[in-house]
Please model this.
Amino acid sequence: MLQFEDLANNTAIQNVFWIVILFILTYVLVLILKKGASKLESDNYSKYKFQKIITFFGYLFFAIGLLFIFNSEMSGIGTALGVAGAGIAFALQEVIVSIAGYIAIFTSNFFKVGDRVKLGGIKGDVIDIGVLRTTLMEIGDWVGGDLYNGKMVRVANSFVFKEPVYNYSGDFPFLWDELNIPVKTGSDFTYAQEKFMEVLVDVVGEFSNQSQTAWDNMTGKYNIENAKVQPIISMMFDQNWMTFTLRYVVDYKSRRTTKSQIYVRLLDVINKSNKKIEIASVAMEITTLPKNI
Model:
């Protein structure tokens, strides 16, 4: 009996007991809140966002609880903890900034899960946002175009304060793209421009209509010019050939496939033009040959 009372009065044993209770309470509370958020929200991103926020506040609640548990023991070493805290803050400044970046990501409009971004020189799709790091499924690098290369990259959240954040699918989930077609100077340039425009309208016309609505919302939200999102063809020429520049808006995930479709359609138009449109190429004219040939 005395041994049990001694254990019950032992400060260390009491602290362990309260830590276990605090952990169980925090775990159950976070679990209940996550299930409640899943039932209240139908959107997958909203569920994901609320679950991350609940997890973060769960950690915060547990840390505050630990402070209360050890409050009596810490009262006499406040000055020492202050000095130690300054050293810890300096040593863990990257961690602290990453946590601040995590809060900034969820409370601002930097990016969200599913967006295509460029962080710290890495371009890819956001698949997870953690307390310290954001996970990207990388695109590009050793593969051409905007295709996955199979690498998952984890970037510290502190990058949102240190470097520019490129979001390819934010408020305006479309990109401007263009391609250049060199045409011989003797070709019918009016006919070429008409046919090229027909191809653009057929391939990216739907993108243009969708992007117009998104761009109208952008002009109402930001101080930005009312740019043209419909397909545009411009032409220039020099002593070699005429160059047609085809500019259009495309979904950020379909840039490569859309460009391939346009090239196929353009080649078909050129082949059926009865030489009204001829692709130009570099030609060299030799005027003098060496005498020993």
